[in-house]
Amino acid sequence: xxxxxxxxxxxxxxxxxxxxxxxxxxxxxxxxxxxxxxxxxxxxxxxxxxxxxxxxxxxxxxxxxxxxxxxxxxxxxxxxxxxxxxxxxxxxxxxxxxxxxxxxxxxxxxxxxxxxxxxxxxxxxxxxxxxxxxxxxxxxxxxxxxxxxxxxxxxxxxxxxxxxxxxxxxxxxxxxxxxxxxxxxxxxxxxxxxxxxxxxxxxxxxxxxxxxxxxxxxxxxxxxxxxxxxxxxxxxxxxxxxxxxxxxxxxxxxxxxxxxxxxxxxxxxxxxxxxxxxxxxxxxxxxxxxxxxxxxxxxxxxxxxxxxxxxxxxxxxxxxxxxxxxxxxxxxxxxxxxxxxxxxxxxxxxxxxxxxxxxxxxxxxxxxxxxxxxxxxxxxxxxxxxxxxxxxxxxxxxxxxxxxxxxxxxxxxxxxxxxxxxxxxxxxxxxxxxxxxxxxxxxxxxxxxxxxxxxxx
Length: 457
Description:
CATH superfamily of the largest domain: NagB/RpiA/CoA transferase-like
Number of helices: 23
Distance between the termini: 48 Å
Largest sheet: 6 strands, parallel
Strand order of the largest sheet: 1-10-7-4-2-3
Mean pLDDT: 94
Shape: globular
CATH topology of the largest domain: Rossmann fold
Radius of gyration: 25 Å
Low-confidence stretches: none
Helix content: 40-55%
Strand content: 5-15%
Number of domains: 3
């Protein structure tokens, strides 16, 4: 068992029985569940919409190279610059080079899970560059010294009382401040940061090949201000975010909004296709798109798991997952948590170290059911498990038990051998530890179902 797996089990044991945590998550996700029911009403045939989106994204990941080049050509025609990077180290190096050239001391940053993947805030702070998260949820976890708990709602694990207490400690706001008062405080606080920032960094929900633009969706306007106020705009984005045409947004944006937040469409949807042009009055003077692989091609090499690269990061699979809802986002110890993270992390970060995530699933299939691009997530978790076994990454004792269990279960005579007492002793001897201290071990009855059936008929 790896150290990461031991830590996972230890953290899961602790958080799963934290009743206050469970209460907060249950409340916050219940609000999301109701919103999604309402959001789905905008679709006349939601299954058809999901099938079309799945087909679109599946075709893109199979023809990625061609359309990435198309995006680069179209983006650079309008004065932007595309920088290709293979890994975390290269990406951070290129971003720092842009900041150094600009003599930047202050950066405003719109919500981006990929910058979390790069640990970009830590890198900038080590270089004495101030960085401010501008999304309210991201700002809350930054102030708390934490990482995002969820890929869409970073502060899902905090109640309004937790946040009021945090802001009272950090900014001396009233300890009884309401969510509205906290939001007003952050709006006023961040406005000065936008005005003074040298560089704005954002992610991108989509890279649009035919217009050479990025699609950015948000609810607070912080993304727009992150690229319109500063002189320089840097987009940090994974190669898998590509879509072929601007015309595809009419399908993908409503799906992302519905399954991400339950809205018909988010409040602000921007398409940015380069720096400020002649005759325009606002926008950045320079714009860079840093394209990042960082293990994505390792996922794309997999015959079946490559489907997971179709993900549009709506977070729906996290919200319905019984495991995520019990052990929380931090227990995964990865940027991408929940079911989709459990599929891609073993290949983004190494199967030998992260295989345990693929086993941390009930395989109920709810994640697959809610996915707006029809990724068969629970099936891919089984494929990951199979890969771990084939590569000899499971323990010898585990392989021995399952090999012999298979022999027994495949033969009726072997199943019927041994009395009730012997079978119950074997269960206690070999499975009680795995079964856990909080569940009663099942008791083998004197007659099997097979024997009862024969007697009856």
